[in-house]
Amino acid sequence: MSESRPRIAIIDSNTLAALGLKQMLQNVMPIMTVDTFGSFSEFEAAAPERYFHYFVSMNIVVQHRAWFTDHRRKTIVLTLSLTDTSQLSDFHSLCINQPEPQLIRQLLMLVQHAHGNGKNLPPMPQILQQKILSDREIEVMSLIVQGYINKEIADRLNIGLATVITHRKNIMDKLGMKSVSALTIYAVMHGYVDINKI
């Protein structure tokens, strides 16, 4: 089944960073298959044209600038600071040296910018399109990912604190998620929360 899925490549010699980004990308875009490569030569040997996007460390882009310039629309440069982007201003970039919530938000913004309303993306598998949560759970989830604490959610929805805690547990159990970051990705990708509200 994974052969029919669109593919994303991560090219970075830092294995730990590549694996962490792979996990985040698979959460943000569950319909994609993500492959990691430790060097440009490994990537080049794997038929690079079959990939939708390349997430590439800055040093590899600089070393192979001509190739990535020819593939600029598919390339996202992984930078360590927001000021690194000036030398590669023709490329989209992603600062990976920031707290997880900001990194998730930046990833989601990249996806929405490039694929607003799902354009250029294959359809989500049927199982991922099903409505899993109740309307009240969706309300609670929306407020969680917007940063409200349990008491504030209870006050806003005019329900008890224990009820909020129960909804929160049920949401995480139903979706099989363990973190607010994963919940944020789910909420934004399914249109339950506007990215600008988180």
Give me some keywords for this one.
198 residues; alpha/beta; five-stranded parallel beta sheet; 10 helices; 5 strands
Any overview of this molecule?
The protein is an alpha/beta fold and 198 residues long. Helix content is 47%, strand content 13%. The protein contains ten helices and five strands, in the order βαβαβααββαααααα. It has a five-stranded parallel β-sheet with strand order 2-1-3-4-5. Strand 1, helix 1 and strand 2 form a beta-alpha-beta unit. Helix 5 runs parallel beside helix 10, helix 7 packs across helix 9 and helix 7 crosses helix 10. The radius of gyration is 19 Å and the shape is elongated. About 3% of the residues have low confidence.
